[in-house]
Please model this.
Amino acid sequence: MAAALEWVAGASRPVADLAEAENLRGLLDALFQRLDGKPLAHTSARARRAVLYGCLDYAVERKLLSSTR
Model:
């Protein structure tokens, strides 16, 4: 478990990076593609979007990001 957490920490970017539009757009572009580069099915994209929005709301709640709503 420790090795996995260490890998995640090293392979992840800070949440604050998502405050910049170009970083968030890159995440969205990658999120809606399969590993082979083809677009995701609509239902899979919707599920991933819901998870991302939940994570972003949590980041705002924890004051890691500011809300622009």
